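Structure, all two chains, one model.
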Amino acid sequence: MSSDTLTPPAERLDGRPSEFTVVPARHYARWAAAVAVLVLVAQFTHGLATNPVWEWHVFADYVFSETIVQAVWVTLQLTAYATVLGFLLGTVIAFMRLSHSPVLQTVAWTYIWIFRSIPMIVQLVFWFNLSALYERLGVGIPFGPVFWSVDSNSLIGTIGAAVIGLTLHQAAYAAEIVRGGVLAVDPGQREAAAALGIPRLRQIRRIVLPQAMRAILPTAGNEIIGLLKGTSVVYVMSIGELFYQVQVIYGRNGRVIPLLLVATAWYVVLTSLLSVAQYYVERHYARGADRTPPPTPLQRARRALKTLGDSR
Amino acid sequence: MSQVMVDVHGVHKSFGPLQVLRGVDLRVRPGEVTVILGPSGSGKSTLLRTINHLEKVDRGWISIDGELIGYRRSGDKLHELKEKEVLKQRTHIGFVFQNFNLFPHLTVLENVTEAPVSALRRPRKEAAETARRLLARVGLEDKADAYPRQLSGGQQQRVAIARALALEPKVLLFDEPTSALDPELVGEVLEVIKDLAATGTTMIVVTHEIGFAREVADTVVFMDGGLVVEQGPPAAVPDTPRHERTRAFLSKVL
């Protein structure tokens, strides 16, 4: 190697490297792609605005109508019940599968096997027709006399059947998600908790689950969003949730496209809200994981505004 | 208080076909520091883990302050204890892990107060006061609100020691407390353990630090192949080993 390649160029010129101007690399392909995307978006937006088939006035008439808002509320309720009950039951089943008791393990394994094997819609119709299977439900001695019984239809009702169906289905999936999260926690954590004599339930609630949440949340977010949209299958039970009501309305007036848009808009809005909530919940459970936690979008926006103000 | 704090009697332990402990006897008097030396795979860590019943023994028994660990005796039968009772026994036995195993999602203070509050049902405020005192004792009073990952390895291990002390255990077990540390951090942890030894805490320490053994131990135990090969005062075992295997091991680590 010759001696002048070893000399830093800055020193060879005039020893003032701070005077150099840096020219950023030019990404011409990126610019071309951006233009192409913009053209496509403009075309689509133009179509949305000018194609009469979208019938935006019909959309505007229905999107906040009382029937639709009612239906959105039913959808939210079904989602909330099935999420809370499904994840509670799922967590219990997950820990049964992780327990040392062969009885609990087998019960949990069988539950997951059965409820993952039955399509949700089939299961829902089963619950809907429960009274055909068992006309009356009661309490008594197994294979012996019955002390108290009730008509099964009056006990659960249609909404009840839907919540039970969604919950049992969701619990099977939730169980596997929670189990995956628990397995991702360093076994040393459980061991340290056991060595300190911390009671078993407390070990799970205070030490294992909060750490498992980091692995559980991304998948659980998927599941809950899937469930929100999945509640639309209960239209088969004639429950007045969003998709069912939309179908009823367009069956009456024939305005299929704008009403499907109404449903789409609501599902997108609700899903977006869930995604935002997921971001903050994940952030909460990440405490202690990073040395300096990243700023929230709100903090980031405020900081950006401040630097903008300072530079003026 | 009985004359023997930790009594290990004829303990056997196998993992599948692998015999890890083959009849270990060990007696530790109250206030004594016992250091266990030995090559990897000699069963030192397993022995330590059987003492607080993290591992069940296959044969033999262990008692602490006269109380059988993991079993209840009636006549010539040993009845296995329920998990709840074992957990209660463990509150008398402090354990410090090689990898610290601090709870990363809890602050340093919460790490130290968790067991006293949940296992011993101490009032939170009282537990926090004790915790701050213990953190001061290991030189970390200003780190109470930090999270473990914000600390160095040596600091984390000192928190782990404070956490074990918070239960006021009858005996403290250390499983290679400095093996996961950078060399320059080993000293600060050994310093804390030495201070504890000076205050008369009963301790069993598994370590590779021969210098520490010589300085602090009342008894040095040398293990190999799942057996106690040799034990005695530090002047005898590391300096003038009688057994061939002890000599071979020491010639490698010194």
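The beta strands of chain A are 136-140, 146-151.
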